[in-house]
Write a structure and sequence with these properties.
This protein is an alpha+beta fold. The chain contains nine helices and 15 strands. It has helices at 13-17, 21-67, 126-172, 186-229, 279-296, 302-316, 374-379, 413-423, 428-443, and strands spanning 74-75, 81-82, 88-94, 98-106, 116-122, 240-247, 256-261, 267-274, 323-331, 336-342, 348-351, 358-361, 382-386, 392-396, 452-459. Strand 7 and strand 8 (267-274) form a beta hairpin.
Length: 462
């Protein structure tokens, strides 16, 4: 037999399983007052009966005494009346302020006093005053008890409400970690839970808003850094056609490309890639670009410039981050380029006009920042590559080969190289436009996951 699972208690169950706050308030005030009123009524009835009984005895005793005392009195015949029993009742007065009633019962038809029975009953205020005192006293007692009950009931509701007011005030002051501690009626506990849930939602909303604000600031900063990483324009080199394309993605990073003119008339074409994404990568990219541009503008050996750049970046780049680069220094007059690579995954691509073959040029080298000097300098290799009339060179970061289609499949190096070869015969503008169209078609609606840098240099045919 399986074990029965006790269902989780829901907040709405409090409305069903317990009496409502309004009903409990009415019951708490009505029941004590009903008990007090019942006790009061019983006591008042007993006391009134006792007062009436005592007053009757006192009144009869005083009536007998007064009737036979011989006290002079005067009747008010015009005010007499007949009781249904046949007894005549005549008011009378005596002395200065005394008054009462004469009760006369006529036995026969004669007018002799022997045919009449008279009873003189003087009026007294003692019984009335005593009854009034008891009524006033009981009224005051009931009023005091009712006030005490009301205070007790109000206190039972007001204290939890005051606690909730304090809780809400704390939340309103921005203390979103505060939690309610109400232990009163079920409705107030339910309200306290709702307040706690609201506080949690507010805290989550505030955290989300803060994250969005930080994210927005990051986007603005990264956007400004990204724009700063791009060259202001594409230089014109006599006898050559130079062009570049930067395809932005939502996941910004620190990848860049740059054109560098040296004082000796040589032109450098640089493509760099930074590990990671976000603002840190963008800042590392900006730093690396500044170092590279500053050193590569100087006339000298490319290897020496790379070695100096590596030493500086090794001290600035935090552990786990690195910068790769591929650099081609063009000698327009000689028709050759000097190529250096610092751990860049995508080699320089050379499309040869003479044989229609696509060749890859990837000298050995490790990324900037991995090693402070000895290993980097030992591994660094610099090669020279001819660029004949009609040849085209292509430099890119690693993003094009990592583009994914709707099925999550990466484009890969071979497919990218095939597209470069397919469009290489077109002029530079058409080549970049066609290559971009192919990459966008492969990515589909998902778009690019990383920024793409593409630079191409072709030598005009003779």
């Amino acid at each position: 037999m399986g074990l029965a699972v006790k269902p989780e208690r829901r907040e709405g169950d409090l409305r069903i399983k317990v009496m409502g706050l309004k009903a409990r308030f009415v019951l708490a005030t009505t029941l004590p007052l009903a008990i007090v009123m019942a006790v009061t009524a019983a006591f008042l009835y007993s006391k009134a009966a006792s007062i009436v009984s005592d007053s009757q005895q006192d009144l009869l005793a005083e009536a007998v005494r007064f009737t036979h005392s011989g006290t002079l009195y005067e009747l008010d015949p015009g005010m007499g009346r007949v009781h249904p029993s046949g007894v005549f009742i005549y008011p009378f007065h005596y002395g200065d302020n005394g008054h009462g009633n004469l009760y006369r019962h006529e036995i026969g038809t004669g007018t002799s006093s022997l045919d009449q029975l008279d009873l003189l009953v003087p009026e007294t205020e003692e019984a009335r005053l005593e009854m009034l005192r008891w009524i006033v006293g009981i009224f005051v007692a009931v009023l005091v008890i009712g006030a005490a009950v009301s205070i007790w009931v109000a206190d039972g509701v007001s204290k939890p409400v005051e606690g909730l007011i304090y809780d809400v005030r704390q939340i309103a002051m921005g203390n979103l970690r505060h939690r309610t501690k109400t232990s009163g009626p079920a409705e107030l506990r339910l309200l306290a839970r709702a307040i706690d849930r609201m506080t949690v939602d507010l805290a989550e909303g505030a955290e989300t808003e803060l994250q969005l604000a930080v994210r927005q600031r990051e986007l603005e900063l990264a956007s400004s850094v990204r724009n700063a990483l791009l060259p202001e324009g594409t230089p014109l080199i006599e006898g050559y056609d130079l062009g570049a394309a930067f395809l932005a993605s939502p996941r910004f990073g620190g990848d860049f490309h740059e054109f560098i003119q040296r004082a000796d008339g040589l032109w450098g074409v640089l493509v760099g890639e930074v590990s990671g994404r976000g603002v840190p990568a963008a800042l590392i990219g900006a730093t690396a670009r500044a170092y590279l541009r500053g050193e590569l503008e100087r006339v000298g050996e490319v290897a020496d410039a790379f070695n100096r750049i590596n030493r500086w970046l090794a001290g600035d780049v935090r552990r786990g981050m690195f910068v790769t680069a591929v650099y081609a220094l063009l000698d327009p007059a000689q028709g050759r380029v000097t190529v250096a690579c610092a751990g860049h995954k995508i080699p320089l691509l050379r499309m040869c006009q003479a044989d229609g073959q696509l060749r890859v040029v990837q000298p050995e080298g490790i990324a900037f920042g991995f090693d402070k000097g000895p290993v980097f300098e030992r591994r660094l290799q610099v090669v020279e590559v001819p660029i004949d009339p009609g040849d085209r060179l292509v430099l890119a970061n690693g993003a094009p080969v990592r583009i994914q289609n709707a099925q999550g499949e990466e484009l890969g190096e071979k497919a990218f190289y095939a597209r470069v070869k397919k469009h290489s015969v077109a002029d530079t503008t058409q080549f970049l436009r066609a290559l971009r169209r192919d990459l966008e078609q492969y990515a589909g609606e998902g778009g690019f996951q990383e920024d793409i840098s593409l630079v191409t240099l072709s030598r005009n045919a003779s």
